UniProtKB/TrEMBL annotation:
Keywords: Leucine-rich repeat, Repeat, Signal. InterPro entries: Dev_Immune_Receptor, Leu-rich_rpt, Leu-rich_rpt_typical-subtyp, LRR_dom_sf. The lineage of its organism: Eukaryota, Metazoa, Chordata, Craniata, Vertebrata. The keyword Signal applies. This is Uncharacterized protein. It comes from the Eukaryota. It comes from Meleagris gallopavo. Signal peptide: none annotated. PROSITE patterns: LRR.
Amino acid sequence: MIVPRTSNKIANILPEHLKPFQSLETLDLSNNNISELKMSSFPSLQLKYLYINSNRITSMEPGTFDNLSTTLQVLKLNRNRISAIPQKMFKLSHLQHLELNRNKIRKIDGLTFQGLPALKSLKLQRNGITRLMDGAFWGLTNMEVLQLDHNNLTEVTKGWLYGLLMLQQLHLSQNAISRISPDAWEFCQKLSELDLTFNHLARLDDSSFVGLSVLVGLYIGSNKVNYIADCAFRGLSSLQTLDLKNNEISWTIEDMNGAFSGLDELRKL
């Protein structure tokens, strides 16, 4: 059963209005005037898919979604005015996909997403995020896709990647990243695709990509790279695509002593 309530002028979610729909699986409340999510908003339902995109949400109470914890699989809160995510906001044991694109989140604290053990993908694009604290994604041990494009992040560190043991795709395009810490990828050794296009990277050191032995696609186009260390791509034995276009690389192949050594599977450069 699907109940769309899009493009109306709904300002509040009232549990008494939803209680009769005990077989409801999909609820779309997009394009309304909802400004807050309260603990009492949702009664116990069999919801699998919940969309509250393009509203005016500024605040969310912890416990808002607790009554949906055993069934909810997809939650979309894109294009709202959310500036902070309270701790223990999402205690949804079956949720697989969470979207928070185009909000106003600037900082993500440690343990923010604790309570989402089944999550496969998290989208946080176009928020203006400047800081990811240590353990920001701790607990997301099964997450495969993390999209952080179009934010204001300045570095990649082991601290905020802590615990992402199953991560396969990391999208960091259109940020302000100028530094990758030497041990950044310690917890992300299943990564197969890494997008760092349109950032501020000026150099690729011999430690920049250590540990990414199953990486297949590495995209560093449209940065400011003018230096690539010898063996910068050492250990990327599975890499098939390396994108370095639109950088500031000025020296020629003859000047290099092995920057591309070890790329035995490379198909596209």
